[in-house]
Write a structure and sequence with these properties.
219 residues, alpha/beta, 60s Ribosomal Protein L30, Chain: A, five-stranded mixed beta sheet, 7 helices, 5 strands, 42% helix
């Protein structure tokens, strides 16, 4: 199956699920982090337990959604950050909306992808959390974001390089498999809700647990 047809399948199945569902569910938890601990990150990224469904609900379509999402994630695994198309970046963002996630306010040196010294404790906490047996088998998206200062092309490139920098550190320092880390950059296109686009808080790295093992194990 081509990447474009895989993306189409994920969107169609997800749209059908949302239209036919009679329950509500909570999207992945997003926690702003400053002096974050590994336990806080672990709790935010922990797979969520499936909701209990009423007897009157139509047969669940989550297995089909998970299968389509899995095929899409496999199609971008081991891809370079720069090689992702705009459509693929948006597909990642769509899937991530329902997954456990956390925002880390990781600072970098000015005009650089080098992690600042003051943010190293947060990156170390992230590495410790992602190395936990509780998250074994999960695939994580590491998404870079910038504020709106500067041009679109410049910020897109900077967000990609910063996501790559985090991935490289996690691989080298904690031995996390590169195939389990998918990096993506969004530049200034996705500011945090309720903030002005130029707010410095928009300069962040979001980590998403794309494999919800609790749901998968229940099917």
């Amino acid at each position: 199956m081509s990447r474009s047809s895989t993306r189409f399948s994920v969107n169609v199945i997800r749209a059908a699920f949302i239209a036919g569902a009679t329950i509500t569910f909570t999207a992945g938890t997003v926690v702003a982090a400053d002096d974050i601990t590994s336990d806080q990150i672990l709790r935010a990224l922990a797979p969520k337990k499936p909701l209990t469904r009423g007897l009157s609900m139509t047969p669940p379509t989550e297995p089909a959604i998970n299968a389509a999402e899995g095929k899409f994630m496999d199609s971008i695994r081991n891809r370079s950050t720069r090689s992702l198309s705009m459509g693929e970046r948006e597909q990642i963002a769509t899937i991530a909306q329902t997954k456990p996630a956390i925002d880390l306010e990781i600072n970098f040196d000015y005009n650089s992808a080098n992690i600042s010294k003051r943010s190293m404790s947060s990156v170390l906490a992230l590495g410790k959390a992602l190395s936990s047996p509780d998250l074994k088998g999960s695939t994580f998206v590491v998404a870079g974001h910038t504020d709106a200062v500067g041009g679109e092309e410049y910020n897109q490139d900077l967000s990609e390089r910063r996501a790559d920098s985090i991935k490289r550190y996690l691989i080298e320092r904690f031995g996390i498999a590169g195939a389990d880390l998918v990096t993506v950059g969004y530049g200034k296109t996705k500011p945090k809700s309720g903030l002005a686009p130029t707010d410095p808080t928009n300069r962040r790295v979001q980590v998403v647990n794309m494999a919800n093992k609790a749901t998968a194990s229940s099917q």
